[in-house]
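How a chain folds remains the central question behind the approach discussed here. This step matters because it turns folding into a mapping between discrete strings. The sequence in question and its structure tokens are set out directly beneath this paragraph.
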Amino acid sequence: MKKIYYFSIAVLLMVSCQGDKPLPGPEPEPEPNPNPGEDVVVTTFRLTLRHNMDYLRSPEWSGESVRGEVEWGDGTKEAYSEGLDHDYAAEGKYSAKFEMENVDGFEIEQLGDIEHLDIAL
């Protein structure tokens, strides 16, 4: 009888030692939105550079997950990517427009013949 008793205690101890994992249960509820009824707002930042050059380098944009579109002013449009630049077919007056989202700043390294800079939100 003592052997069965010790065996039962040993089995109970082994089972209890394997119980480090939490018991399966319902998934935790997601935290409620602190501002219900409000959508996430994405601010569009617009920059226009009027210039007289045959080459233009895009400003370097900073922020998390920056995205946008560039109109180079000669009929060419493209999605923004880091290190983007554009060669124009001929020197002339152009207005390059940048519509960017998720931006918290920018830096223009190439000022060259930029005649006018317009910033809007």
Observations:
- The mean pLDDT is 79.
- The first strand starts at residue 44 and ends at 51.
- DSSP finds one helix and nine strands in the chain.
